[in-house]
Write a structure and sequence with these properties.
Helices cover 19% and strands 32% of the residues. It has two helices and seven strands; from the N terminus they run βββββββαα. A hairpin with a 6-residue loop joins strand 1 and strand 2. The longest helix has 16 residues. It starts with 9 loop residues before the first strand and ends with a helix.
Length: 106
């Protein structure tokens, strides 16, 4: 997975489907934080699984590569998972949806 500026961001670790429609709702990114953003050292776990809405991706020319239309800095504060579940529990689903809606409204 690449950022909108072309830099490598992480790997697709999984896909979360909408249980009603069966369509992909989120790509789960295995993200490795670079560590520093605007002089702020990030003290979080540098390896996280982050569900990002499917609508935020476009396919790149490479066979299995995606480009993400999200500023990479948004991933730092995005809700993350310790492992990839079969589906999100209700609380996490709400947190993830709310976060990405707030990003869209900015």
């Amino acid at each position: 997975v690449y950022s909108d500026t072309g830099g490598w961001v992480g790997e697709v670790a999984g896909v979360l489907l909408d249980p009603k429609s069966g369509y992909a709702e989120y790509l789960v990114i295995f993200y490795r934080e670079p560590g520093i953003y605007d002089r702020a050292l990030m003290a979080m776990d540098p390896r996280r699984y982050i569900p990002v809405p499917w609508s935020k991706f476009v396919r790149r020319g490479e066979e299995f590569a995606f480009q993400m239309s999200v500023d990479e800095k948004r991933l730092v504060s995005a809700p993350s998972l310790q492992k990839i579940p079969a589906m999100l529990n209700l609380e996490m689903a709400r947190a993830v949806a709310s976060y990405w809606q707030s990003v869209d409204s900015e």
